[in-house]
Amino acid sequence: MSLSGCGGRRRETHVQPPPPPAIQPTEVPPLERTEPAEPTPENIKPLYVEVGLASWYGAPYHNRRAANGEIYNMNALTAAHRTLPLNSIVRVTNQRTGSTATVRITDRGPFVEDRIIDLSVAAAKALDVWRPGTAKVKLEVMEAPAPINRGGRWAVQFGGFEREGDARIVQERLEHRYRTAKVLAFSSPVGDWWVRIRVMNDDKGRAEEVAHNSPAPPEQTFLVRLD
């Protein structure tokens, strides 16, 4: 059985980014910080600009641990991005309506090939994305706690699989193929399964090589920053 055949039929609902593979706690302390910083003045030059499709994620992930260690609050102005440093401050503009919101990157995703950001419910409503589900947006990174184009800790993620058994098979094959890497299989709150491979030292170059030589099709292979 090949990796490309394990993904199954793609769901038509809003695809959510899977949480980190750690076990999710049932009780957590209250959030100390749920909102991004004050909106950045318009005349500040962005550090990085990206244009693409935005989607949103909500209830199944609400009150669960996000990638930055906080508990995801779908009513706060936050978002998920695959490669921007966590806790970056991003101004998002809906290209059709002109609606703008400033969000903080707290999570990883969306793990869908043609999308660049997953918004919280609050951000999706502010940006007129909530009802249509997706919209073309412009991202402007106004603040970042780490360099965007260098450094960082990186991994490659494969999925999602409808059955745990398929993910476990892929996990075992990747463990044999990349003996110095750490390979994890985990499920998301919406029931699909993912495989994440962490290369030695979480090195970006090695992760890019793994992604380039992936046995999976591009739509099932994602380079993801962990920090």
Helix/strand layout:
Layout (H helix, E strand, L loop, with lengths): L47 E9 L21 E3 L8 E6 L5 E8 L7 E5 L1 H6 L8 E9 L10 E8 L2 H14 L4 E6 L5 E6 L5 H9 L8 E5 L2
Parallel strand pairs: 1-5, 2-4
Antiparallel strand pairs: 1-6, 2-5, 3-4, 3-6, 7-9, 7-10, 8-9
Structure description:
This protein has 227 residues and is of the alpha+beta class. The protein has two domains: 96 residues, RlpA-like domain (Barwin-like endoglucanases, Beta Barrel), CATH 2.40.40.10; 75 residues, Alpha-Beta Plaits (2-Layer Sandwich), CATH 3.30.70. The chain has three helices and ten strands; from the N terminus they run E-E-E-E-E-H-E-E-H-E-E-H-E. The strands form two sheets. The chain has a six-stranded mixed barrel with strand order 1-5-2-4-3-6.
Low-confidence stretches: 1-15, 17-34
Please tell me how large the radius of gyration is: 17 Å
Shape: globular
Helix content: 10-25%
What strand line-up does the widest sheet have?
A: 1-5-2-4-3-6
- Output the CATH homologous superfamily of the largest domain: RlpA-like domain
Q: What is the β-strand count? A: 10
**CATH fold-level topology of the largest domain:** Barwin-like endoglucanases
Tally the helices: what do you get? 3
SSE-based structural type: alpha+beta
Q: What is the CATH-assigned architecture of the largest domain?
A: Beta Barrel
Biggest sheet details: 6 strands, mixed, barrel
User: What is the N-to-C succession of helices and strands?
Assistant: EEEEEHEEHEEHE
Broad CATH class of the largest domain: Mainly Beta
How many distinct domains? 2
User: How far apart, in Å, are the first and last alpha carbons?
Assistant: 33 Å
Beta-strand content bin = 25-35%
Give average pLDDT, whole number.
85
